[in-house]
Amino acid sequence: MAAEPESGEPGAATAGIDAMSSPVILWLRRDLRLRDQPALTAAAHDAPVIPVYILDDDAPGAWAIGAAQRWYLHHALAAFDTSLRDKGSRLILRRGDAVTVLRALMAETGATCIHALRHYEPWWRTAEDALGDALCLHDGNYLAPIEDVTTGSGTQYKVFSSFWKALSQAMPPADPLPVPHKIDAPDAWPASDDLDDWALRPTAPDWSTGFDVWTAGEHEATLAVDRFARIVDDYDGDRNLPSIEGTSRLSPHLHLGEISPRSIWHAIQGTGQGITTFRKELAWRDFTAGLLLQLPDYPDANGRDQFDDLTWRRSPKDLRAWQQGKTGYPIVDAGMRQLWRTGWIHNRVRMIVASFLVKHLLIDWREGEKWFWDCLVDADLGNNSVNWQWVAGTGVDSNMFVRIMAPLGQSEKFDAADYIRQFVPELKDLSDAAIHDPDEAGCRPDDYPAKIIGHREARERALAAYKALR
After folding, report:
1. Per the residue annotation, which of 207, 312, 399, 412 is the catalytic one?
2. Which candidate in 63, 284, 344, 371 is catalytic?
């Protein structure tokens, strides 16, 4: 394993180089912030700092950053470079195998060590191990060090309720670290790629025109926290209503590390169930990272082996209808179109559309997982895989497969009429009573598709598949 830092001090120095004047490298991945950035705090201690972000598309393999998140990443990197320049520093961009690039950069600059925040994606753990004693790892992307929250036998938790009980005993988290007073620059800056040359944004056709709902950067993340703090007391109920702004919309900022979870914990205070529910959701990130730590193939394999024998349907036509929001179920179609247009989808609707793919269409959850990975600006390996397996019933801690959400009932229960009108304009003139199920109301417009399958038929087909599995 990579070397642990001692009391925030830089790690082992390269022989023959003065560690007090030679630079150190700050390796950035999903941690693009100045405040509460333990790796930056340690790196800036009595040494010039070379902040570097490496676009490594090879190590993740099939899980290289998706198209929507690449768009967000472009803006996040630009915003972070501006923040660094305000401190007299700058962001160096390199592309290629992260380990090879970092070793070459150390040789090129005479850097004595590399500071970085710890990550739990399998490919990053492999890279961290490969860097050995040159790397000083710090915790800071989660509420608590993932390895510290364990069962009585010292293993990672596989059930969230037990995990939350254990994590709660370590809360509140430590106070956030301040922005370093100074970030010393090296005598000479190494060469950097030009961000535009990475072509992270789409060209033609440009599908990102609706992404202007997002503004990347640490400053915007702080503003988002302030906005959410004003409504958190109502969060437990409002988070389920897609037609209102009742969620935090912090997930892109959290994923790219533009704000730390412990900064959010301390900034957002409240009373009652709202703050408790939100903090549990913040802790869910820690839980999913712990699952990745113990089950690194979780994004690709069923958490429960019995589901390896489930007979999934292979229907490219139905899958495409779901992806395009043309299933004939207004709440599902609104969610899938919101996802495509904005790179994000309301949290209640995420569950509805996921359940529809897996249960109504009986299509493998991994197809949905891959689509979300490419379309979400906040796509996170742990969250994405664990959430999909939770809905599908295939996970180690999940909903039961036989729990099949009724999308039409969900739509009416959670008052999604205005949400549907926003994203399914074919239905904008329907009444609140009719818009949830135009077929049943007898007023489906000609330009809106009929249901791809009836709810009762879909339910019976899913239950039959499960019964055959058992």
Report:
1. 312
2. 284
The one-character DSSP state at 356 is I
Residue 392 burial (C-beta neighbours within 10 Å; 0-12, 13-18, 19+): buried
Residue in the block written with tokens 């379309």: 375
Q: Which of 189, 207, 281, 399 is catalytic?
A: 281
Query: Which of 365, 371, 373, 390 does the annotation list as catalytic?
Result: 365
What backbone phi and psi angles, to 5 degrees, belong to 95? Answer: -130, 140
347 as an active site residue: the answer is yes
pLDDT at residue 68, rounded to an integer: 98
Q: How does 102-129 read in b/e, with b if 16+ C-beta sit within 10 Å?
A: beebbeebebbbbbbbbbbbbbbbebbe
Known catalytic membership, residue 281: yes
Decide if 365 is catalytic. yes
Q: Which two tokens stand for residue 291?
A: 């699952």
Give the three-class secondary structure for 71: helix
Per the annotation, the verdict on 123 as an active-site residue is no
Residues with Cβ within 8 Å of residue 270, at least 6 apart in sequence: 229, 232, 233, 235, 278
What is the DSSP secondary structure assignment for residue 180, as one 8-state letter?
P
Structure-token pair, residue 253:
């900022």
Q: Which residue has tokens 């509460």?
A: 36
Q: Which tens digit of pLDDT belongs to each residue from 250-281?
A: 999 999 999 999 999 999 998 889 999 999 99
pLDDT at 270 (0 to 100)? 85
Q: Does 284 participate in catalysis according to the annotation?
A: yes
Of how many residues is the chain composed?
470
Say what the pLDDT of residue 4 is: 38
Kindly report, residue by residue over 408-454, the tens digit of the pLDDT.
Answer: 999 999 999 999 999 999 999 999 999 999 999 999 999 999 999 99
| Rounded CA Rg of the chain | 23
From the list 214, 344, 371, 388, the catalytic residue is 388
- Residues 56 and 98: beta-carbon distance below 8 Å: yes
In which residue ranges of the chain is pLDDT below 70? 1-20
pLDDT score recorded for residue 124: 98
What is the H or E stretch that residue 24 is in? strand 24-28
- Which residues share a beta bridge with 117? 138
Q: What digits encode the pLDDT tens for the residues 38-56?
A: 999 999 998 999 999 999 9
Any catalytic annotation for residue 71? Answer: no
| Domains of the chain, first to last | 24-141 (3.40.50.620), 146-175+218-294 (1.25.40.80), 305-469 (1.10.579.10)
Query: What pLDDT sits at residue 187?
Result: 95
Q: Which residues pair with 115 in a beta bridge?
A: 26, 136
Q: What share of the chain is helix, strand, coil (3-state, %, to 5)?
A: 50, 5, 45
Q: Where are the beta strands (DSSP E) in 216-289?
A: none
